[in-house]
């Protein structure tokens, strides 16, 4: 396979096809195939039971400590300054150690040559100006780590900056690497900088010699922790390791020149160097060139490459590859790149006639995807240059919205136009219990960069290793840890050298089969080791492998079958299908009528053989005129065979026709004939598209649609798009057979084109300028040419600017200027009407329109001074184009906004007048809305309604705790990004623009975090939700108390009616009196039986009950109450580690890493059964949620009962704690829940129980604030009991006094900041 040559893979632009590029990888394909997914568990506390010595030597602890010390240090500066300090220290540490190692090696070499390295003359000759072949820097004394580490703490800042200055003076390649005054500018306290330097000093190959590529591990950790805060326009910072490794493996840059036009931190170069080393190549044989726009990233790249001793040319400065190509005129052997996807704002007029695209069309201004490709082509050596790069999803779509199908594999018989790579021990990274770990499948077969077959091998000399172990490795461990690899890798092979079996990654072990023939007619071999030889020759020769991959794997229709099934043929089926095909072809050609006969035993797979044969006849005989597009009839003698055959042969066609009929009914009365006539004018077809799409938009009809939530009413547009999606899925399956009629195929293409147009106009896919111009250019074709204009602006007719009738009327108007004036009139009217719904947006559109009109009149004045005749007409056409683009921009944006607000029709579903008012008005005058409310008043429900308005947009959900975040994510069903505030500030992408940001639990977010949040987050609208009477922020946070006074009063709302409690006449009244600081609140609580002194009733149990305490310690703390409550549980105690468990124990899940959002943090449950074994313990838990089979797919959870009166029963095991090896899973050794008869009040925030008991003893009453008390009593839906003494009641009554602190703080802040209050709601 290594001799297979490369083939160009063509990419489409609007009008041209161009080649030379070895392969392009779409990010979505790679993400699902190779790259590990994001895991938000990183950074959480590790198990404290580990020995201190282990911690000291643990590389992860060292790195975490470095980051933590720097963040905690005073005067450590901004995010960027922290990053520069940390990475610079790491750089100094590694080049210092590398220098010390180089000196030691030099000494050893001298000794071996009989020379004394301590001799003064020898030292002068060899050490004063030492040179190292491996790229190690000869460091000046001031820059050596030994100098730095031995410097007294008060002098460290100066010494560190001196070291950096001397490095730049000594080596030109390091010029520009460092920020001047990195350390002295911040001047960290002596103790702080010393702690950080000491911690960095622990990072050493001497201490962690077993670590592979320790430099890379440490450096990449800090690159990710302190990632450059760049926007999408400024470039992505960090390309995942696996992606770089894949590209490097594919193009094999062993020698020559390597170029990356957007090199980021240099990851592409480093992986190439590692590949060269692994192949025993010469690192000096690669010359790397790069360019980076972002100055901070440019510096990091230079440091990163210097660490590895890689000689490089990144230019003298950071600059854009488009506007200032630092390597202009150079051609390179290899190019590797991960360009910024869909880069906006890259274009300027100076690039219009750029030589890089002189042989092609100018790349579209809308994004830089094609510009990147052409830029790389311009630098690629014409004869033998090879490029490997990533492309944005959708980058191969033409401007008409029809995706161009590019064959990723060449299936021609010569079989040489593909790149085959067999890679052993390919590293796939995944996250386990917050730690990055690796899986290394024994062998993966890649074709054109795509993993198509995974092989797991066992040692034939090991009696304990079997091919069943190999099967378990793929079907259990790999599906658990690296499913992202297996989802698109269909074939699997398992072997121990003697037994070698073929199947798929979904095949049960008993259905893996040997391949016992290489060619038909060969004797079936049963000799030892013959299975391996026949498998290699019979399956893995390139042409045979591609034939099996293309035609002999059956995938079930996943849309209609719930079980995932993949079946590869057995060798008898393969040869039988081939022979039967040839026999049938011969029979048809010679008209003998003797197709052939196939005999097989029961269960041998005859039906699958017929399916494979049918595919061969339908798709592989098109060049035989006598067969053409055959009709295949399947005749069976039993009902079950009819059903079995129908499942394989007929489902897609029947489904396609059903969906097509639905679509035809939706368009009853529409003339679709232009799409059925191949001679039809393309312009006429386009008009039909525009007209049909407009029909979809304006329809107010609602239709019944069945989905995961049952039957629901959906809009006409949603129903249409879903139907087209289903039709297309069936069409793709059955169309290749040729069984569909021409009219059916043409109608299918018609509806798919209309759906594509609808998605573009809806904003669900990018709309390029050319497409949009064509939609309106006819409407204003001759506008502005004439001074005499036929006007209809005084007609007084009622028009809907978005209706098909309006566009038809405009088409009938002959005078082009009249069309433009009519458009302006209707825009003005619709903006006025729209202002009744969304005043803020309407004002913006009005300003845009007035600006367009003013520019129009100004241009007409200049037009009168132009020459007459053709010159004047040309200028007029230019004015038309400009006016068209401006009018269209207003029309398009307003239509999109109007569509979003049309979703306010969902307000008919809102059964509360106050919530309906909030949804309709909250963004009328401000982009920031605020909702205050007591527990259970429906704040999150309002957020759900508002999120529905933005359901097609980018939404970000934030909360301060994982419990609130999980609750928000479950409640809001739209596709959203969801973080805790801490995780977003640490890991969220500041370049990503959101349409809506929802922040829950605002009262718990501190001032510092909310300030950082608004500085980092970029959004069109914000929704802030919270309750100032619930638990406040742990750090100082008073912003939510007074922020409402600065927001427009129509954007601030308070919900006061709770819906959580059942007995509204008593419990709700108690909540209200406490919330309102009623001076008799404790008397009323006592009179209604809610207060009691401590007695034995605290230990009486209800089914759904919790005891709430302020803390964990003390006689009546959480720990003691849990011990006592568990003790009176009559079930048998089961000891596991340091803990005791009993059947019937109440639990609360607190370990979300293993089970994610299925068994999430703060999920309630109770233990139903416990099975303790030697090496594991198995729990069955009744949990308070409905879990489906789909939820637990590919997880370690076994679903016992999916709907047990609104709850579910799950089973999972916990392994006994042992030393970890490569096949163990750390998270499997952690019990993911805590005993929860009692929990802390802080832990209970966000939870609900039927019965709540609150314990407030005299030793803690000083710590009970009004917010804590209110949070505790609002956790119940039915019963409430508060245990406290009369003395405690008196203390709390005196303590709970209402104040106007929020208004006072607002007034104070307004005076200091020179602001004014927008409203004065009572505090």
Structure notes:
- With 1323 residues, the chain is α/β, with parallel strands linked by helices.
- The chain contains 43 helices and 38 strands.
- The strands form 10 sheets. It has a 6-stranded parallel beta sheet, sandwiched between helices. Strands 22-21-23-24-20-25 form a 6-stranded parallel beta sheet, sandwiched between helices. The protein has a 6-stranded antiparallel beta sheet with strand order 33-34-32-31-30-35, with no helix packed on it.
- Strand 33 and strand 34 (1208-1215) form a beta hairpin.
- Residues 1-56, 227-237, 398-405, 763-801, 803-818, 864-870 and 903-908 have low confidence and may be disordered.
Question: How many whole angstroms does the radius of gyration measure?
Answer: 35 Å
Biggest sheet architecture: 6 strands, parallel
Average pLDDT value?
75
Derived structural class: alpha/beta
**Spatial separation of the terminal alpha carbons:** 76 Å
Largest sheet strand order:
3-8-7-4-5-6
Shape: globular
- Residue windows where pLDDT falls under 50 for at least 5 positions: 1-56, 227-237, 398-405, 763-801, 803-818, 864-870, 903-908
Number of helices: 43
Which bin fits the share of residues in helices?
Answer: 40-55%
The strand count comes to 38
Strand content: 5-15%
């Amino acid at each position: 396979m290594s001799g297979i040559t490369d083939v160009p893979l063509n990419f489409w632009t609007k009008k041209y096809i161009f080649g030379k590029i070895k392969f392009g990888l779409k990010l979505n394909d790679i993400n699902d195939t190779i790259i590990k997914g994001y895991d938000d568990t990183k950074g959480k506390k590790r198990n404290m039971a580990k020995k201190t010595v282990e911690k000291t030597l643990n590389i992860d602890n060292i790195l975490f400590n470095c980051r933590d010390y720097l963040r905690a240090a005073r005067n450590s500066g901004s995010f960027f300054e922290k990053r520069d300090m940390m990475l610079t220290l790491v750089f100094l540490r590694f080049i210092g150690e590398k220098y010390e190692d180089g000196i030691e090696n030099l000494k050893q070499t001298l000794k071996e040559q009989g020379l004394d390295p301590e001799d003064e003359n020898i030292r002068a000759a060899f050490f004063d100006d030492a040179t190292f072949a491996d790229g190690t820097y000869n460091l000046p004394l001031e820059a050596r780590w030994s100098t730095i580490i031995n410097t007294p703490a008060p002098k460290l800042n100066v010494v560190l900056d001196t070291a950096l200055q001397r490095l730049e003076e000594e080596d030109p390649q390091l010029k520009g690497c460092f920020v001047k005054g990195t350390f002295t500018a911040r001047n960290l306290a002596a103790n702080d900088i010393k702690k950080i330097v000491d911690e960095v000093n622990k990072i050493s190959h001497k201490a962690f010699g077993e670590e592979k590529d320790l430099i890379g591990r440490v450096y990449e950790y800090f690159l990710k922790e302190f990632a450059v805060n760049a926007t999408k326009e400024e470039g992505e910072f960090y390309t995942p390791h696996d992606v770089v490794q894949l590209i490097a493996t594919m193009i094999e840059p062993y020698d020559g020149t390597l170029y990356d036009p957007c090199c980021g931190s240099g990851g592409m170069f480093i992986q190439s160097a590692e590949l060269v080393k692994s192949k025993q190549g010469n690192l000096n044989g690669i010359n790397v060139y790069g360019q980076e726009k972002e100055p901070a990233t440019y510096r990091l790249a230079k440091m990163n490459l210097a660490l590895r001793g890689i000689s490089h040319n990144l230019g003298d400065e950071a600059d854009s590859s488009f506007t200032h190509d630092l390597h202009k005129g150079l051609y390179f052997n290899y190019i590797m790149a991960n360009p910024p996807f869909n880069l906006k704002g890259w274009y300027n007029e100076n690039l219009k006639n750029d030589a890089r695209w002189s042989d092609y069309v100018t790349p579209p201004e809308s994004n830089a995807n094609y510009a990147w490709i052409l830029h790389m082509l311009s630098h690629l050596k014409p004869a033998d240059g090879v490029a490997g790069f990533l492309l944005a999803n959708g980058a191969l779509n033409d401007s008409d919205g029809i995706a161009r199908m590019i064959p990723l594999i060449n299936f021609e018989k010569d079989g040489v136009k593909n790149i085959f790579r067999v890679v052993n021990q390919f590293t796939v990274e995944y996250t386990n219990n917050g730690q990055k770990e690796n899986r290394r499948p024994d062998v993966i077969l890649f074709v054109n960069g795509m993993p198509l077959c995974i092989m797991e091998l066992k040692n034939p000399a090991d009696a304990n290793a079997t091919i069943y172990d190999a099967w378990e490795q793929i079907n259990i461990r790999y599906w658990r840890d690296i499913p992202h690899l297996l989802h698109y890798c269909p074939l699997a092979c398992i072997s121990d050298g003697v037994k070698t079996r073929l199947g798929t990654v979904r095949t049960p072990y008993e259905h893996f089969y040997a391949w016992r023939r290489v060619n038909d007619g060969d004797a079936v071999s049963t000799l030892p080791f013959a299975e391996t030889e026949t498998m290699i020759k019979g399956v893995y020769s390139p042409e045979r492998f591609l034939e099996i991959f293309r035609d002999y794997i059956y995938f079930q229709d996943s849309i209609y079958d719930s079980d995932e099934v993949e079946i590869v043929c057995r060798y008898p089926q393969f040869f039988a299908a081939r022979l039967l095909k040839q026999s049938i072809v011969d029979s048809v050609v010679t008209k003998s009528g003797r197709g052939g006969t196939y005999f097989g035993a029961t269960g041998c797979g005859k039906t699958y053989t017929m399916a494979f044969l049918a595919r061969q006849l339908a798709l592989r005989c098109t060049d035989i005129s006598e067969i053409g597009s055959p009709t295949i009839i399947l005749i069976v003698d039993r009902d079950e065979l009819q059903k079995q055959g129908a499942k394989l042969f007929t489902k897609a066609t029947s489904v396609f026709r059903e969906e097509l009929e639905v679509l035809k009914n939706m368009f009853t009365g529409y003339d679709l004939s232009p799409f059925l006539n191949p001679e039809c004018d393309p312009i006429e077809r386009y008009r039909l598209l525009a007209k049909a799409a407009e029909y979809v938009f304006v329809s107010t009809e609602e239709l019944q649609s069945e989905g995961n939530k049952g039957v629901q009413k959906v809009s006409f547009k949603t129903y249409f798009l879903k139907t087209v999606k289903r039709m297309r899925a069936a069409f793709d399956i059955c169309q290749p057979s040729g069984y569909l009629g021409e009219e059916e195929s043409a109608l299918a293409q018609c509806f798919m084109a209309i759906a594509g147009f609808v998605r573009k106009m809806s904003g669900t896919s990018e709309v390029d300028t050319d497409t949009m111009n064509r939609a309106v250019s006819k409407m204003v074709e001759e506008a502005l040419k004439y001074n005499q204009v036929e006007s209809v602006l005084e007609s007084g007719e009622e028009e809907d600017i978005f209706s098909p009738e309006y566009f038809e009327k405009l088409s009938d108007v002959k005078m082009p200027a009249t069309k433009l004036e009519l458009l302006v009139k209707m825009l003005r009217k619709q903006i006025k009407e729209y202002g009744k719904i969304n005043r803020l947006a309407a004002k913006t559109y009005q300003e845009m329109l007035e600006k367009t009109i003013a520019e129009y009149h100004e241009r007409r004045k200049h037009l009168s001074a132009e020459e007459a005749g053709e010159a004047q007409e040309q200028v007029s056409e230019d004015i038309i184009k400009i006016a068209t683009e401006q009018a269209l921009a207003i029309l398009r944006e307003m239509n999109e906004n109007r569509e979003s607000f049309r979703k306010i029709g969902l307000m008919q579903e809102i059964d509360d007048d106050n919530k309906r008012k909030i949804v309709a008005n909250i963004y009328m005058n401000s982009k920031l809305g605020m909702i205050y409310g007591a527990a259970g008043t429906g704040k999150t429900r309002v957020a759900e309604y508002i999120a529905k308005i933005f359901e097609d947009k980018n939404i970000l959900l934030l909360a301060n705790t994982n419990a609130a975040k999980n609750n928000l994510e479950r409640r809001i069903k739209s596709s959203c990004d969801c973080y805790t505030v801490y995780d977003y500030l640490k890991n969220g992408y500041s370049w990503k623009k959101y349409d809506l940001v929802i922040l829950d639990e605002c009262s718990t977010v501190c001032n510092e975090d909310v300030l950082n949040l608004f500085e980092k987050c970029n959004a069109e609208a914000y929704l802030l939700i919270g309750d100032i009477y619930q638990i406040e922020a742990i750090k100082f946070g008073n912003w939510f108390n007074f922020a409402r006074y600065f927001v427009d009063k129509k954007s601030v709302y308070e919900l006061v009616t709770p819906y959580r409690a059942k007995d509204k006449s008593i419990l709700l009244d108690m909540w209200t009196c406490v919330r309102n600081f009623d001076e008799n609140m404790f008397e009323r609580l006592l009179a209604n039986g809610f207060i009691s002194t401590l007695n034995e009733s605290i230990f009486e149990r209800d089914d759904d009950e919790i005891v709430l305490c302020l803390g964990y310690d003390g006689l009546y703390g959480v720990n003691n109450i849990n011990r006592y409550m568990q003790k009176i549980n009559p079930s048998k105690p089961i000891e596991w580690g340091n803990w005791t468990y009993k059947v019937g124990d109440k639990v609360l899940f607190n370990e979300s890493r293993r089970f994610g959002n299925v068994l999430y943090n703060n999920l309630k449950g109770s233990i139903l059964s416990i099975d303790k074994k030697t090496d594991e313990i198995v729990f069955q838990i009744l949990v308070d949620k409905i879990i489906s089979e789909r939820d637990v797919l590919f997880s370690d959870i076994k679903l016992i009962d999916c709907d047990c009166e609104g709850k579910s029963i799950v089973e999972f095991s916990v392994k006994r704690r042992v030393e970890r090896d490569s096949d163990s899973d750390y998270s499997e050794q952690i019990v993911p829940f805590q005993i929860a008869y009692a929990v802390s009040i802080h832990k209970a925030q966000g939870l609900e129980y039927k019965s709540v008991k609150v314990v407030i003893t005299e030793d803690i009453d000083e710590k009970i604030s009004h917010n804590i008390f209110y949070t505790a009593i609002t956790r119940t839906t039915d019963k409430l009991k508060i245990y406290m003494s009369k003395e405690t009641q008196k203390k709390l009554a005196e303590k709970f006094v209402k104040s106007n602190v929020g208004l006072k703080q607002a007034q104070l802040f307004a005076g200091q900041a020179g602001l004014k209050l927008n409203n004065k709601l009572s505090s």
